[in-house]
Amino acid sequence: MTTSPQLCLDKKQLRAKIRAQRQALTPKQQKTARNNLRKNLERSLILLRSKYIALYLGNDGEICPKELLTYYLKRKKQLYLPVLHPIKKNHLVFCRVNARTIFQKNRFGILEPSFKHSPSIAPSLLSLVLLPLVAFDEHGSRMGMGGGFYDRAFEFKQKKSKCSPRLVGLAHELQKQEKLPTEAWDIPLFAIITDKHSYRTS
Questions:
Q1: CATH superfamily of this structure's domain 5-200
Q2: Alpha helices in the chain (DSSP H)
Q3: What is the mean pLDDT of each run of 10 residues along the chain (202 residues)?
């Protein structure tokens, strides 16, 4: 299946625009957004009822949920971070993190657990995935960075959208769009949580 040149151009322009907006946020604005996001997540029943949770470390102006690592490890949750697969190009593997995890930078300069020293879990066995995005709408559509990493990891949900894990996007409120262009392989999000609101899409 191919994508029209105009749709590619529209998505590229929108992606560049929103990335510039979130990169322009000051450290103080980022900290405030991070704190507000944490409060929204801590009161969310979605997290309280999940045991095997994947999240991410923010980059490129993304809203960052890293404070949740300590918070949920103390509450006996099993937490995982995405790691670039060392063999399969442009694929993710989810590795468990704890207080003794060894971190290293990947090719994008993002810290991730050492693949050699961290146990991994199959994506289908996760309960909940908190994932970054560039743009979203209230219908659950998500625009990522364009690499397709998460789309490949959760491709199995295209046919069984209600199976685990639940995919929840995290974002700054400024990343919200009225309606995003979608494609056949896009996997809708279960919910989106921002520094201002929570959007349940299912």
A1: NagB/RpiA/CoA transferase-like (3.40.50.10420)
A2: 5-23, 27-42, 45-48, 67-73, 149-153
A3: 52 92 96 94 84 94 89 88 90 92 90 91 96 93 89 86 88 94 78 93 74
